[in-house]
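Let us practice reading a record.
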Amino acid sequence: MAAVCALALAFVLLLPWTQSHGAGAGTGGRGVAEGTPAADSTCRDPEKQTLAPSAAEGPTIATIKARQGEKRKLIVGVDQNSYRWGYRDPNTTGAALEGFDIDLVRRIAQDILGDPDAVQFKAIPTNQRIPAIQEGRVDMVVRTMTITCDRIEDVAFSAPYFRTGQTVLAPKSSTITGYNDTLAKKKVCTATGSTANTRLTEDRKSGRLPATTDISTTVPNQLDCLVRLQLGEADAVVTDGALAASQAAQDPTVALKGAPFTTEYYGVAMKKDADDLVRRVNQILVRYRTDGWQASYDTWLSATLGADAATSRPPAPQYLRTS
């Protein structure tokens, strides 16, 4: 385990020497009636199960603003190891957190507290994202977190801010060609609690994934799968294509295999009863989509996902009806 941790740290420290920062300022908007409508019982489209935007403040935002002195910050669960999403750049003063998700966090803090730096970042592993919210350790999680039907039973989500899909990452020399029969008798790594882990489990039961595919290798953090791949302890990784592309940029010996086989959306996750905060974040996202999103994409993701951001932009948001 010590060797695995050491390798993970090494890969973080080998990031490119030059990065630029994103920036932006938020705005408010019109208010809407409060109330938490019931989610769609069939849940075919979990990304639409969110509240309409509002700049109105309620008890959750009031609690955040009531924090005194140095504690008057937005507390946000993030990743610190996902290259170009949320990671510590060792070439900056204090190894500052940077990335696409971090830009969004700072935009939210700017809007709610008037200061993009009024954030207390808490690094949390993949499998602790929901517990951190439910236990009140963070106000929200902005950590490449896919909106799913199962998760909206436990936390509330904003409207989508990014579109991606599950894909396979494997050594360039591998005979694996994608999410297909070439995964037979292969060991596949996923993060515990991830949508990839859920999908593999379901697909092996249904027969879409070969029965001989070994999906027993799971790790707390998705980046640990890349380390397992590099150590020869796994034959492939299944994760979001956006994350896989960033990992391929870190390690030139691996590559994405085949096309994405799902369509998924990242959202900001918050407590189930934090209606005012959910609405406020959705209001912030309305402006961010036209003023900030593209600049952040160009800064952090265009090098790995391509200059054309069309496939990564989420669709126009749809909200639950309110009474």
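A brief commentary: Confidence is low (pLDDT under 50) at residues 1-40.
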